[in-house]
Amino acid sequence: MSVDKAKESAAIAAVNEHINHNVHVIGVGSGSTIIPAVKRIAEMVEKDKFDLICVPTSLQARELILSHGLKLGSLVEYQELDVAIDGADEVDEQFNCIKGGGGCQTQEKLVAICAKKFIVVADEKKWSTNLGDKWKKGVPIEVLPIAYKITKKEIEKQLGGEVIVREGAGKVGPVITDQGNFILDWKFDSSKVFNWSDVNQQLKLIPGVVETGLFINMISKAYFGNNDGNVQVKVNSAIVSA
Ligand SMILES: O=C[C@H](O)[C@H](O)[C@H](O)COP(=O)(O)O
């Protein structure tokens, strides 16, 4: 995966602020923006020689942790993380976000909910007024393979829009997640106003749904980089006190 300047700047700024010798267990997100973040974490650990356990959110994250010589942990061993750093596909002004463009939202949400602080790193194009303004691929939803036709039909019936079964490259047929499930992308009508918390709950009540890519007001801080290397930091005052 190639890493552009905008993503790299956001990742480095977030790591510089949140990783230090007081931090012992962290969550490591998935995607392309997390790559420079892990590189920077490894540089800091190497230089300052502190003990850091990294809990991955995917097979990709696990490989990144191992290939940078960092210590690997798991949610079975650690349910309380000092901080989790992850990418996002879109973040709205209420700090709701869509994740799962790479199909990793289920483990990402587990890690995020265990973290005292959930930090998002992204390029500036991911920040929007309303979800769907910029991210046009819909909300990723992990479903049990046996249920994908039922869940597709039910989502379209209850919430409208169109549900696409995600297919990959390199093999015909559906994308298989790290948990062995399928991904549906719910292309919602972005001209409609949604209460994303209600939508998330409604989706989760549909039998066969494992997890949604809607992260409702979980972000503490978001770092958005641009191609000049500047980073805008957005603080969620609903979570972080001044
Ligand atoms: O499933 C993938 C994850 O949710 C990623 O964190 C998200 O898609 C953002 O990825 P990227 O950093 O590559 O834009």
Automatic annotation (TrEMBL):
Keywords: Isomerase. It holds the Pfam family Rib_5-P_isom_A. InterPro entries: NagB/RpiA_transferase-like, Ribose5P_isomerase_type_A. The keyword Isomerase applies. Pathway: Carbohydrate degradation; pentose phosphate pathway; D-ribose 5-phosphate from D-ribulose 5-phosphate (non-oxidative stage): step 1/1. The keyword Isomerase applies. One of its GO terms (cellular component) is cytoplasm. CDD domains: RPI_A. Its EC number is 5.3.1.6. Gene3D superfamilies: 3.30.70.260, 3.40.50.1360. One of its GO terms (biological process) is D-ribose metabolic process. One of its GO terms (molecular function) is ribose-5-phosphate isomerase activity. It catalyses: aldehydo-D-ribose 5-phosphate = D-ribulose 5-phosphate. PANTHER family: RIBOSE-5-PHOSPHATE ISOMERASE. Belongs to the ribose 5-phosphate isomerase family. This is ribose-5-phosphate isomerase. It comes from Adineta ricciae. The lineage of its organism: Eukaryota, Metazoa, Spiralia, Gnathifera, Rotifera.
